[in-house]
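Example record used in the benchmark description.
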Amino acid sequence: MKMVQAGTVYQLTFMPRFFPVSCYLVEEENELTLIDAALPFSSKGILKAAKKIGKPITNIILTHAHSDHIGALDTLKAKFPEAMISISSRDARLLAGDKSLLPGEAGHPIKGGVPKNIKSKPDILLQEGDFIGSLEVIFSPGHTPGSISLLDRRTNSLIAGDALHTRGGVAVSGTFKPLFPFPALATWNKRTALASAKKLQSFHPHLLAVGHGRMIQNPAKAFQKAIKESEKNIK
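Model output (structure tokens):
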């Protein structure tokens, strides 16, 4: 595991050279919020990082319910039984293994690894504008129908899940990058993902942190380039 700190945000990356999967610890005054739960074997590294920081994990927020973002969830919930699990109401269905589509979603099958046999249940079903500590929930569907991002209002740091990725080149979810094609192959709706990227850009974040790839400070130019490429590909 590789740990990189940017202010109150700690990026924990597993398999950084081959298939980087990142989750995040966000430091509050007396506690930590974990964003995503990476892979099944990631629990040990997450626990080690929390111990190093010296604060308990009291919230676990899932940006979406793909398998590489919820892998260690059950193990972590067992270690921190009081931690509150949060996910969007839409992706709570995916967390339960339900890939069925809702009205208005026809024609875009849900892709990617949907979990099976997850025992942990969400305590909070998140809506646009909700807050967990310092983190504001921003609805950013596209990669999955219920994907969310989190904006730390203290620092304007954006943790965007798979709404974008930076591995193999900065890209909006759904844009095929030959050096790292996996997020594109797992994306539910490219047009919706593009609209979400434009929405996230409008917050002018000072830091962009994603599920796959390095964090980017002052990502305005990276956003602009990725959105332009997505628009071109969709046309």
